[in-house]
Amino acid sequence: MAAEAPTDAVAPAPPAADGALAGLRWALARDLKLAFRSRAELGVQLLFYVIVVTLFPLATTPERNLLSTMGPGVLWVAALLASLLSLPRLFATDHADGTLEQIALSSYPLEALVSGKIAAHWLTTGLPVVLLAPLLGLQYYMDGESLAILAMGLLIGTPILSLLGAIGAALTLGLKSGGGLLALLILPLYVPVLIFGAGAVDAVRAGLGATANLSLLGAGLALALVGAPFAAAAAVRIALD
Amino acid sequence: MALNWFKLSSPASFYPVAGAMIPWFAWGAAILAAIGLWLGFGIAPSDFQQGEVYRIIFIHVPSAWMSMFLYVVMAVWGALLLGFGTRLSGMMAQAIAPTGALMTFVALWTGALWGRPTWGTYWAWDARMTSELILLFLYLGLIALRQAIGDPRRADRACAVLSIVGVVNIPIIYFSVQWWNTLHQGASVKLTGSSMETTMLAGMLVMSFAFWFYSIAVVLARLRVIILERERDATWVGALAEVRAAGQGAAR
Q1: Which of B73, B207, B241, B244 is most deeply packed, by most CB within 10 A?
Q2: By three-state DSSP, how is residue B51 classified?
Q3: Mutate to test the interface with A, among B142, B146, B161, B175 (most CBs of A within 10 A)
């Protein structure tokens, strides 16, 4: 991170009318700029997603029916793992060089700053996964309707992954056993997202319609949007204490 | 009687209270378990569908109830810690986690042993079992997070946040048999009445109280150890008779 201009590392003097939205926007713009400057890192994470998805047909059989049945589940599991892999980036680099403390000291509400960071995390890691999924789904012989539902489920579900993941990332800040521990803490919380997301595609294939599963995902997103920034901000404060 | 509850929230004043409570709950658990097992194995008739196998219910259902209940209690202690900053709340949550994990494990294990003769399988990927398994992972995650954080004050608060987030899982477990068509049977005991024979129900309820009392006794015993460990530099700990005796024993 030495290449970055030092201005990025310091929160600007808050404007007179500082509010939650301004803080969110500032954190979002900053993290997007940082992510854009380390494009290679983002590319690596996306490649990880592609490779995990590619492994399953090689490990089992490239049989058409089997793959189209497994497809949604595999793509969702890979999305979970890709999200997990990218989580340490959310706070850890800022924590390591002391930026996070400066951010927490700024007069913007920490919840808003954390929300902005989460939004940037989803835009740089979740959204590419959503866009790539239909293409990878073709490799699994999924039909058009299944692909559309898969993409829609991922579109609703991956923000939940970023929101919940932020809590885990903040709780494990600076701990030695970070990576494995983060998986143990966060994957159980990801499970409902996985079940409803992959279940939506299965329901369509069974002729039941995906409304129920997608609505539950939407409800989960609403709950996570309201609760997770507060929990993550509380976890950041605990880690900085 | 006007009790000052906040006085009890200090480790120094709760330590002897917990010590006085433990024998009552331990003996209560032993007596209730004896009565419950006698009701369950001696009095309750065999089930017309499941024969004798159903008797595992007297362990399975109480442990499953306690696994969920203890998690909620732990999260409430976590919320109290974050709200009031009372140190004892964090210690209480720490003391509950292993017992909760044990109850979850017992519920899963007895469920598997019950499932084999009745469903023909130890395990099914059904909503209730899967969510109970997730509960076990949540407990283990909490224990692991606490182990990974050296500073007990930070560990208390981090675990409190995590346990409150994980509470979402409890209604999912509880209502899973109503929300999904699961292999696991629906609830036999409801507030409006029960579909069970009276002696079976009595045995199960008595066993539930036995598990409850056992959990309280064990949690309080563990809490006392945690208090001693964390407050070891406090003067009141040095003044305790058992600590002085142990100190003299070690010096000799």
Answers
A1: B207
A2: strand
A3: B161
- CB A104 within 8 Å of CB A237: yes
Question: Structure pTM?
Answer: 0.87
Q: Which tokens belong to B91?
A: 């210690």
Please give the residue range of the domain that contains residue B85.
29-43+56-184+196-231
Which of B144, B161, B169 lies at the smallest CB-CB distance from A238?
Answer: B161
C-alpha to C-alpha distance for A153 and A149, rounded to whole angstroms:
6
User: Rounded distance, CA A110 to CA A114, Å?
Assistant: 6
B164: chain A residues, CB-CB within 8 Å: 231
- Do A158 and A127 contact (CB within 8 A), yes or no? yes
For residues A31 and B126, give the distance between their C-alpha atoms in angstroms, rounded to a whole number: 41
Cα gap B196→B16, rounded to integer Å:
42
Question: Would you give the end-to-end CA distance of chain B in angstroms?
Answer: 46
Q: Which of B84, B135, B127, B126 is nearest to B105 (CA)?
A: B135
Residue A186 near residue A104, CB atoms below 8 Å:
no
Residues with Cβ within 8 Å of B216's Cβ and at least 6 positions away in sequence, in order, are: B21, B25
Does some domain include residue B216? Answer: yes
Which stretches within chain B are classed as H helix? 5-8, 11-38, 57-84, 87-119, 127-148, 152-166, 169-179, 198-230, 235-238, 241-251
pLDDT value of residue A23: 87
A80-91 average pLDDT score = 90
Q: Is residue B64 part of a domain?
A: yes
User: What is the CB-side half-sphere exposure of residue A195 using CA atoms within 13 A?
Assistant: 17
- Per-residue confidence (pLDDT) for residue B84, from 0 to 100: 87
Taking the C-alpha atoms of residue A233 and residue A111, their distance in angstroms, rounded to an integer, is: 5
Q: How many domains does chain B have?
A: 1
Task: Indicate yes or no: CB of A191 within 8 angstroms of CB of B130.
Answer: yes
* Torsional sign, CA A99, A104, A106, A112: positive
Which residue in A188, A234, A238 is closest to B154 by CB distance? Answer: A238
B148 shares contact with chain A (CB less than 8 Å): yes
The pLDDT of A78-92, averaged and rounded, is 90
Q: Write the CB contacts of B113 (distance below 8 Å, at least 6 apart in sequence).
A: B56, B122
Least confident of A152-161, B69-78, B187-196: B187-196
Domain membership flag for residue B244: no
Q: Smallest Cα–Cα separation from A47: which of A131, A129, A160?
A: A129
Q: Is B17 part of a structural domain of the chain?
A: no
Interface test with A, best of B134, B139, B145, B156 (most A CBs within 10 A): B145
Question: Is B166 close to A164, i.e. CB distance below 8 A?
Answer: no
User: DSSP assignment, residue A9?
Assistant: G
